[in-house]
Amino acid sequence: MLLSGSGKPQFGEGNREVGEAPLGRPVWAAVGGSLMSLCLPFTGVATMKFKSPPVNSLSLEFLTEFSISLEKLENNRACRGVIITSTLPKIFSSGLDITEMCGKSMEHYTEFWRAVQEMWLRLYGSNMVTVAAVNGSSPAGGCLVAMSCDYRIMAENPKFSIGLNEAQLGIVAPFWFKDTFVNVVGHRIAERSLQLGSLHPAPEAHKLGLVDELVPEEKLMERAAAVMAQWLALPDHARQLTKTMMRKAVLDRLVAHREEDIKNFVTFVSKESIQKSLRMYMEMLKKRKS
Ligand SMILES: CCCC/C=C\CC(=O)SCCNC(=O)CCNC(=O)[C@H](O)C(C)(C)COP(=O)(O)OP(=O)(O)OC[C@H]1O[C@@H](n2cnc3c(N)ncnc32)[C@H](O)[C@@H]1OP(=O)(O)O
Question: What's the ipTM?
Answer without folding.
Answer: 0.98
